[in-house]
Design a protein that fits this description.
Length: 310
Amino acid sequence: MAPGGSGFLKEATEFCIASADSDLATSDAELRNSIYSNTAPGLGRNPGRPASDNDVHELLECPVCMNLMHPPIYQCPNGHTLCSNCKGRVHNSCPTCRHELGNIRCLALEKVSESLELPCRYQVLGCHDIFPYYSKIKHEKHCKHRPFNCPYSGNYCSVTGDIPLLVGHLKNDHKVDMHGGCSFNHRYVKSSPQEVGDAIWMISVFNCFGRQFCLHFEAFHLEMAPVYMAFLRFMGEEEEAKQFSYSLEVGGNGRKLTWKGIPRSIRDSHKKVRDGQDGLIIHRNLALFFSGGNMKELKLRLSGRIWEVQ
């Protein structure tokens, strides 16, 4: 922070309080104690020392969601601040003192936030860039170092991490089959196929070209029609996924149905891929035909191949 930064922060804090004081009899000392004790206690205890990054973060931290605030920043008449997202959630009542909020803006804190340069929140994961406050927020939504969500498509899983961690997690915790090679054959057998409901399977993870791909197979209803769907997701970023293509094939009785596409990044949930119908879709009647016309048992053989795009 530039020299004199501590004085600027102190002035900013006091300005926020003073801007709300025109219609109140509260003393300056009470207001100063209020904001120091609830928003920036580090600054209040020793106003003469230089401001640290922790002081700045504490000053700009919303007391409701605990995220850093950015304009518009609101305050109650007692000087307690909160972010614009949380203002609508607290029903116009200050979460600190319960005073009615109104629409008072803390312009000084907004200036502080606009002047900051901060590291990416994923610095510990490998992103070492420094960004102006607004650019930081936008960058973090798309930072390539942000953790991936677990791609398992069964029950919801809250685990996040980098690709090596998630590969081990899928193998050890979800017991997903791991395969090497860039081609595959899977057989899906189900009795009582007339009773198709919504079901989700993650059949396998393939290690191909030194990267990992997740093969999914799901049963659901497309509008009113029961269908099966197979698709591939890439364990990496979308731009990297575009370096690969894949094909899927299912058939029987002298017929076959094929699909060719680009694997979707696991940044997109399996539900998003499914709802976008970005994969091989097999209607139940056709699946039964592929199974030999036997209405009592479904037997689908799914084959596929992955290759690099030149």
